[in-house]
Specification:
globular, single chain, Jelly Rolls, 1 helix, 10 strands, mainly beta
Length: about 160
């Protein structure tokens, strides 16, 4: 049993040492995400010669009653341009088991947003994330999306291919 614990600790140590994360931030949602609540992330100045992979990080509990999530993500460039994407991600398998990592009733989902992005404009970028969930048949969106505890954004340096 002790050998297994030591092997696990060594594996975690080596995995964490090879991380290419250059930015990571998380906003707490207090157990729900309001329809008008924007998770805003101010990015540090990025190296314009490097390429990056961008991720959305969503933590949910068993209180989340959907098997997917719709998000609206806007990347605001330093000189006024905005690129907005409406995205859908699967959060659970067809049998209802949660996707993502975690022990207990909290699961963290690391969701691809964009890959091999180059930040070519000098200045500060921001990323805004809002939820765009609706109940089937409803025109109005879900005003209080229960079960979302945290919304995050992270950037990793892309490996050369």
């Amino acid at each position: 049993m002790n050998k297994l614990v030591v092997l696990f600790i060594v594996a975690v140590t080596f995995t964490s040492c090879e991380s290419d994360i250059v930015f990571s931030d998380t906003k707490s949602m207090d157990g729900h995400w309001g329809a008008t609540e924007v998770a805003e992330f101010k990015l540090p100045e990025m190296d314009s010669l490097k390429r990056y992979n961008l991720f959305l990080n969503i933590r949910n509990t068993n209180e989340y009653k959907f098997n997917n999530i719709f998000l609206i993500v806007s990347m605001n460039f330093p000189h006024g341009k905005t690129v907005t994407d409406t995205l859908e991600y699967r959060m659970a398998n067809p049998d209802g088991t949660w996707l993502g990592q975690g022990i207990g009733d909290v699961k963290e989902n690391k969701l691809w947003y964009k890959e091999h992005v180059q930040f070519s404009e000098d200045g500060n970028y921001t990323v805004d994330i809002t939820q765009a969930m609706r109940n089937n048949g409803d025109v109005e969106g879900v005003t209080k999306l229960e079960g979302i505890t945290d919304v995050g954004f992270s950037i990793e340096e892309a490996t050369k291919q």
